[in-house]
Amino acid sequence: MKLDSMPITLTQCGKTFRGTRVLEPLDLSIGAGETLVLLGPSGCGKTTTLRLIAGLETPDAGGQVRFGDDDVTALPIERRKVGMVFQNYALFPNLNVRGNIGYGLKIARVGAAAARERVDELLAMMRLQDHADKPIGQLSGGQRQRVALARALAPRPRVLLLDEPLTALDARLRDTLRGEMNALLRELGVTTVYVTHDQAEAMELGDRVVVMSAGRIEQIGTPREIYYRPASRAVAQFVGTLNRVAGQWRDGALVTTGGKLSVPAPVSTGSPELFFRPEDASLADPAHAALRGVIEQSTFLGERTRLTIGGAAPDALFVDVAGRIELARGTQVGIAIAPEALIALA
Ligand code: ATP
Questions:
Q1: Contacts for 187 with CB less than 8 Å, ≥ 6 apart
Q2: CA 72 remoteness from chain centre
Q3: Is the CB of 14 under 6 A from ligand 1?
Q4: Fewer CB near the terminus (10 Å): N or C of the chain?
């Protein structure tokens, strides 16, 4: 199934509830067919942004929402042609699977034969053929999630809006469905806005990710840009784990407790600290390594081991190593970090 796609443009869209501004006026452009993920901690305004696009909320005065060239700011949800999936799915408990998927087609007065054909197509697409006549109460969490998605897609929406669609599922199922969701969104080609607080979902599904915090946009970028070039501490700390090396600038290097880090280009922020990801560092011969420290803790995580190393910098550092490495507490180690993996933050 392939859906039409169109760009979405938000201009100066803010939201105030009873005198409290929960969303600062924001500008956001979503490309036709793009999957844009809104990522951020609870309460940062992700759902409110999604509801503004859906037509479940109207922006404060001056805000505008456009689908392609259409100004939809004043249109209610039923006239925007959006498909929406909520975190709790909000399925109709009194209808069976077929009834739920076909609900929007009935509302849109699609003829019985055409509706049946569309529902059959979606049942097959979502691997729900064997469950078509079951009541919702007899389905697993993953099946309910697929019914909710099929119901949202049935009327051929021009925009797909997903609010934490995988959050209610257990971790293992979530991993599987994340991959399926990715394949599905690519196949549909529909413009999608996806709300989550899960960074793995954001990384896998987003063409671009919008990191939000306290009602504003902190950064918009591809998953790689967000991860490797975070624009602020808020982004860096929310996405992945980041080590901090504080010290003093001397001759183009950051001198710290356990050695020094040379940077490829002078760091303009002036703040005497650098950051790096645990997986961007490796163990090296202490005699020649940039930093030296002592193993404080070694945590076996299956596919990797996370080492906590003290003494190399004022803060303890995490270094992730793959393979069957076992290091006792107190072992002296060297840490090597590629210069391009060093992050300077304003
Ligand atoms: P979560 O992941 O917890 O859903 P979120 O990032 O989606 O968080 P929002 O649901 O957009 O955040 O909420 C942002 C802020 O706006 C919160 O402080 C919330 O309490 C407040 N808020 C949302 N809807 C309303 C409302 N109808 N009336 C008053 N306050 C609201």
A1: 1, 2
A2: 26
A3: no
A4: C
Both tokens assigned to 12: 């100066």
Best residue for ligand 1 mutational test, from 18, 26, 37, 46 (most atoms within 8 Å of Cβ): 46
Inter-residue contact 305 to 282 (CB < 8 Å) = no
Instruction: Let me know how many helices (H) and strands (E) the chain has, helices first.
Output: 8, 20
Contact, 154 vs 1, CB < 8 A?
no
Contact 89, 145 (CB under 8 A): yes
- What is the tens place of the pLDDT at every residue in 24-35? 999 999 999 999
- Nearest Cα to Cα of residue 35 among 208, 201, 184: 208
- Token readout for 209 is 């990710």
* pTM exceeds cut of 0.70: yes
Q: Which of 228, 197, 192 is nearest to 207 (CA)?
A: 192
Q: How far is the C-alpha of 322 from the C-alpha of 52, rounded, in Å? A: 44
Q: Are 146 and 126 in contact (CB under 8 A)?
A: yes
269 pLDDT above the threshold of 70: no
